[in-house]
Amino acid sequence: MKLTQTLVALTMLFVAGAAHAQKLKTEKFVDGSGHVGVAPGWKLADSGSGGAILSGPGGAAMQLGQFRTVFAHNFDQMTLTPGVNPEVPRVHLNDPVRAMIDATMVLVRQGIISKLKLKGVEPAPWITAGRAALIRYSFVYQGKPVEAYGLFIIAQTDQQSGTYFYSFVTASPETYARRFPEMKAMWNSWSVSQKTLQERMDNAAKSIGEIDMPGKLNAIHQNKRAAGERMAKQFQGYIRDDKQ
């Protein structure tokens, strides 16, 4: 696509997103952990802990701010205890794209979705290079094709475990392009409360560096704690400011 065509397309997308943003109705999460703007025809189906699940017209859907504990892809070999906590996905902890594939393939093996296909990947190195990625993909759900786009993050806790963060939007192939501006506008409106953000910061810092003596931090742990706090702050800022 030529530069002029690209600029025109981006301008049209921005204008469409701005128009949809004006129509959003702000709805608070049930536990007070945040809020999101909901477009006409959409419903806030579930919310809590800073995350939200929304359902829209024609089967369109969004999941924002979801996260779960994951084990390393070779966890069973490392621990010599195969089968422990089988409900916890085994993923590659140093690659967000492979982590997304690993976690999604769990749904494939369970027969929930099929025919997962990655269509485009853009690195999002806002924590450290290669730890976050924007992914365009498709799959089949209940016999129907689905187009999807999301932000996927893998934050490693140690050699055996980590936390997998994800936010994504989905719609049918026929309506995806038309729905995307309103889905992006809702995604941009999503906000996590300061209390919830502080809890995330504390949890991130705790998982990286603990206090070794009352009132004192080991110098190395202190640096890692600061890195954990920056990670949590940047996560909140990035998801709100750049999701195209």
List the helices and strands and how they pair.
Layout: H1 3-22, E1 25-28, E2 34-38, E3 43-48, E4 51-55, E5 61-72, H2 75-79, E6 90-91, H3 96-109, E7 113-123, E8 132-141, E9 144-156, E10 161-171, H4 176-189, E11 191-192, H5 194-208, H6 219-241
Parallel strand pairs: 5-6
Antiparallel strand pairs: 1-2, 2-11, 3-4, 4-5, 5-10, 7-8, 8-9, 9-10
Q: How many helical stretches?
A: 6
Q: What would you call the structural class?
A: alpha+beta
Binned strand content: 25-35%
Quaternary state, please?
Answer: single chain
What can you see in these coordinates?
- With 244 residues, the chain is of the alpha+beta class.
- The chain is built from 6 helices and 11 strands.
- It has helices at residues 3-22, 75-79, 96-109, 176-189, 194-208, 219-241, and strands at 25-28, 34-38, 43-48, 51-55, 61-72, 90-91, 113-123, 132-141, 144-156, 161-171, 191-192.
- Strands 3, 4, 5, 6, 7, 8, 9 and 10 form an 8-stranded mixed β-sheet that branches. A 3-stranded antiparallel β-sheet has the order 1-2-11.
- Strand 5, helix 2 and strand 6 (90-91) form a beta-alpha-beta unit.
- Helix 1 crosses helix 4 and helix 5 (194-208) packs antiparallel against helix 6 (219-241).
- The longest helix is centred in the last third of the chain and has 23 residues, at 219-241.
- The protein is globular, with a radius of gyration of 19 Å.
- Mean pLDDT is 79; it is low at 1-17, 207-233 and 238-244.
In brief:
The protein has 244 residues and is an alpha+beta fold. Helices cover 37% and strands 33% of the residues.
